Amino acid sequence: MSSNPLKKIALVHDWLLGLGGAERTLKVLHEMFPQAPIYTFFYNKKFTDKFLPNAQIRPSFIQKICKLKTINYKLFLPLLPIAAESFDLSHFNLVISSSIAFSKGLILKPKTKHICYCYSPTRFLWDWHQEYLLGNGVSKLNKGWGVKILQHFLRIWDRQSANRVDQFVAISKTVQQRIKKYYGRDSIVIYPPVTRIESSVLPRDIDFPSEKINSLSAMDFVRSEEIILRPNHAIHSRQCPLEYTASKSDLIPNYYLIVSRLFPHKNIDIAIRAFNKLELPLIIIGAGPEYGKLKKIIENKNMIKLLGEVPDTELGNYYADTKAFIMPQEEDFGMTPLEAMAFGKPVLALRKGGALEYVLEGINGEFFDDPHPAILADGVRRLNENYKNYSPLVIKKTAERFSRSRFEEEIKNIISK
Asked: Stretch 162-181: mean pLDDT, rounded?
């Protein structure tokens, strides 16, 4: 699709350092409007050359003063609102901000329409602000007043800058509710496209013994040291290096699967502790700074494997051969469960966030209510008990609702209004 010749369009994204769901959605927007430059606060050229090879990347002044490979860019938080306001977008008549945090705070000419595709109101300023403090080692009592004061003033700016947006578009009903609560703005929901996996392969029939699952009780999981607060980090400075990538031929059949970046708020540790007790095979695909910590808590490295990153071209094989997909964290939307559903695989998800909008208990998956190993393990037991009742064809229908063509059509409709 080419851009409307009557509209000169720009795209804005907070930062381009690594690949996540927001960046995949940005790529679709870029392919819809290939002539539109992408403005960003800072970027990793190696990443953009590979992922957005033909894009015009226009960074802010911050790019010139930081070395992104060596510095924690959270130090630049006070400058991000200034960077957003510094972009000269006066010659565009349509700007689409793909907003993780501050990129919605643009100052535009009256003639310029601003559509904000919002992944969430800035979480480390709003619903995760206390977890952000704790996750960065700030005591509740007498430390970190500088960070708290900074959060306060950033929160004021964030709230006021939301008024500059002409049309908010939320990625889910969960995010739509947050936009209303924190910004006082109405929005429409356009679900992001699930583009990484396109599968016409139906899953194989899998028989799985339930004796081990049914024989465990909650007391098998109760350890005081496991019941801890897991801080949610809103922005991250690096990906950890990969230590190894296992061959698929080495994997135990009928495994459960997690595909996720390895950060504290993803609750991967909870899943590992649950599967340690269940003694069931679990494959974890993804990279991140928690890699080393997670590797240490695996009790049986033959049953639970951290594979690191897997190319998109190979990922479909893992989805096709898995028994079920596990999502232990709250997500604003959550693309990877839908990727698994594209292969007819049921999903076990935490009963929070975007998963509430597509996981249907007993039909395409199950929920567990709290991020604790015993409760997740009970969800695995229920999923296994109901496994014969899941229809791969019905599950695949869920994923089809989130196609790229549907996303593009809905974006075009909102632009034309």
From this structure: 97
Same domain? For 129 and 140 the reply is: yes
Same domain, 252 and 382: yes
> Sign of the C-alpha dihedral, residues 15, 21, 24, 29?
negative
Nearest-angstrom CA–CA distance, 26 and 44: 15
**Closest by CA position to 405, among listed 246, 205, 194, 254:** 194
Residue 237 has pLDDT above 80, yes or no: no
Same domain, 155 and 299: no
Give the separation between CA 15 and CA 245, rounded to whole angstroms: 27
pTM for this predicted structure:
0.80
Kindly report the number of other CB atoms within 10 A of residue 310's CB atom. Answer: 19
Q: How far apart are CA 339 and CA 320, in angstroms?
A: 10
- Please tell me the total count of domains within the chain: 2
Q: State phi, psi for 405 to the nearest 5 degrees.
A: -60, -40
d(CA 89, CA 92): 6
Residue 200 lies in a domain: no
Domain shared by 412 and 289, yes or no: no
User: Percent of the chain having pLDDT more than 90?
Assistant: 67
Residues 338 and 361: their CA atoms lie apart, in Å, by 15
Structural domain boundaries, residue 13:
9-193+403-416
d(CA 291, CA 267) in angstroms, rounded, equals 12
Instruction: Give yes or no: residues 262 and 128 share one domain.
Output: no
Q: Is residue 67 part of a domain?
A: yes
Question: Does 313 share its domain with 343?
Answer: yes
CATH number at residue 266: 3.40.50.2000
Half-sphere exposure of 313 (CA within 13 A, CB side): 0
CA gap 85, 288 in Å, rounded: 31
pLDDT at 236 over 60: no
Residues 64 and 94 in one domain: yes
Q: Which residues pair with 242 in a beta bridge?
A: none
Give the C-alpha separation, 272 to 295, whole Å: 9
Query: What is the pLDDT, as a whole number, of residue 252?
Result: 78
Helix (H, G, I), strand (E, B) or coil at 136: coil
Are residue 187 and residue 39 in the same domain, yes or no? yes
